[in-house]
Design goal:
Layout lengths: L18 H12 L2 H14 L4 H24 L6 H9 L2 H39 L7 H18 L5 H27 L19 H12 L19 H30 L2 H7 L3 H9 L5 H32 L18 H17 L2 H25 L15 H14 L7 H25 L6 H5 L1
């Protein structure tokens, strides 16, 4: 009888990412659809003090970042919230729901990008080159946009971090244009600084609720930093470089957001920004720099939302594929196309959900739902880091002060709760999405019975 041989050991991922590339990755992952599409909606909730919710959202995200830094330093490999949840609580249904919530946030984020593409930036380009005589259905464009992403996803996309540097620079250039317009306006004596302190609550609403409800939506603009933990295995000395890159990346993004918000409020009253909706930044460019070619900013906006949407749909389809491979949802979702070698069933499923969302909801609801789902996940991660303090590792790693994850859990839970003034539609959409996950879980339990899965493999 032939002697059994062990399977060859898998090679490690190439550690090609240094501190500068990691910093660009963090900044690029945060910048995108949120600020380009939701500035007007946030202004409608708070008034002229538009910069305040973006600053508060940064503080809440910054607290949670310390928990991620402790966990990625403790477990320096490609991982995520699902792995941390499983290690801390060892409840596989909870692990599944966290993974499904992350997946759902990717779909809602991509759907909001699709609407920004169809209803705002593409419409601006069409108007610039074809005037108002040529019209196109924004919802139809958003649906075609999702289908286009699905085809790219199906074909197979290999993203490199160096390419992310280029995309980040393009996204950043649009925001720098807004900031430059603000500086020019101030130097020219334009704008109304008194607006920057105006908080205008809705009838029957307190100023605190106006601020927190605006923050609950603005938080969408700060998400993305947590994705960088999945690059841990490809970083050189991740325990050392991660804290500085993640925290500085968040600070840079927050400074840009606050300056963009200040510029917007200086030049345009909050009610006009609110009426402009996802076109608010286009309105800022028009008012602050009338001679600037609007189509250039529109193309930058298109590029920003395309990049955000593609990354999120890739993540969502791969998470569904991973859950199917771990036999925690029906295995059909793990089907790989024989020629393209991509998870085509999971791509169709996630794209189908996105098409339903863009056909039935608006950008603000999708942005709010994305923030809600991730705030719940961040609450769990902040608690997990405290639970995992009892699990020791044999290497030095970053450790957050205990009060930081405690405050992070409290603030995330508050912004996710109805006390923050969050719209009820956010909960409805989130519950429908998570209910779909529970249905898939139950179908799988009926077919296969209780299944034990590898959360670390799922998180990769």
């Amino acid at each position: 009888m032939a002697e059994a041989t062990s399977a060859p050991e898998q090679p490690e991922l190439k550690r090609a990412i240094g501190p500068k590339l990691l910093l660009f990755f963090v900044v690029g992952d945060i910048l995108g659809t949120g600020i380009y599409a939701l500035t007007g909606n946030v202004a409608g909730k708070i008034g002229g003090a538009l910069w305040l919710p973006f600053l508060v959202a940064f503080v809440v995200a910054f607290l949670t970042a310390f928990s991620y830094l402790e966990l990625v330093g403790k477990y320096p490999r490609a991982a995520g919230a699902a792995l941390y949840t499983n290690r801390a609580f060892k409840i596989q249904f909870l692990t599944f729901m966290v993974a499904f919530a992350v997946m759902s946030s990717g779909i809602t984020s991509a759907s909001s990008a699709a609407l920004a593409f169809g209803r705002t930036y593409l419409q601006s380009v069409i108007k610039e080159f074809f005037s108002d005589t040529f019209t196109v259905s924004a919802t139809l464009v958003a649906i075609l946009f999702i289908i286009g992403l699905a085809l790219i996803n199906f074909r197979g996309v290999s993203e490199s971090v160096k390419a992310n540097v280029v995309l980040t620079c393009i996204e950043l250039s649009g925001l720098v244009i807004i900031i430059a317009i603000g500086i020019y306006a101030v130097l020219a004596g334009d704008g109304d600084p008194s607006r920057l302190t105006q908080v205008d609550p809705a009838p029957g609403q307190s100023a605190l609720v106006a601020i927190t409800s605006a923050t609950a939506l603005a938080f969408f603009a700060m998400v993305g930093f947590e994705d960088s933990v999945n690059m841990a295995e490809e970083c050189r000395d991740p325990v050392r470089i991660f804290p500085r890159a993640m925290l500085w990346g968040m600070v840079i993004a927050a400074i840009i957001y606050v300056l963009v918000a200040i510029t917007s409020s200086l030049l345009i009253p909050a009610d006009e920004l609110s009426k402009a909706g996802s076109s608010a930044l286009l309105r800022v460019v028009t008012v602050g720099a009338p001679g600037f070619p609007l189509w250039i900013f529109s193309l930058i906006g298109l590029f920003a939302v395309i990049n955000s949407a593609l990354i999120n749909m890739l993540m969502a389809s791969r998470l569904i594929y991973g859950m199917a491979n771990e036999r925690i949802i029906p295995k059909v979702f793990g089907t790989v196309h024989p020629f393209r070698r991509t998870p085509w069933i999971s791509i169709i499923f996630t794209s189908g959900v996105a098409i339903i969302l863009v056909s039935t909801t608006d950008i603000a609801k999708l942005g709010g739902t994305t923030a809600l789902l991730l705030l719940v996940v961040f609450t769990i991660v902040n608690i997990a880091v405290l639970v995992l303090r009892k699990e020791k590792v044999d290497h030095k790693h970053f450790r957050a002060p205990t009060w930081v994850p405690v405050l992070g859990a409290i603030t995330c839970a508050y912004l996710a709760s109805p006390l923050s003034g969050r719209a009820s539609a956010d909960y409805e959409i989130a519950l429908y999405l998570l209910a779909a996950g529970i249905v898939l879980w139950l179908i799988n339990r009926l077919v296969h019975g209780k299944v034990t899965f590898d959360a670390e493999k799922l998180a990769k």
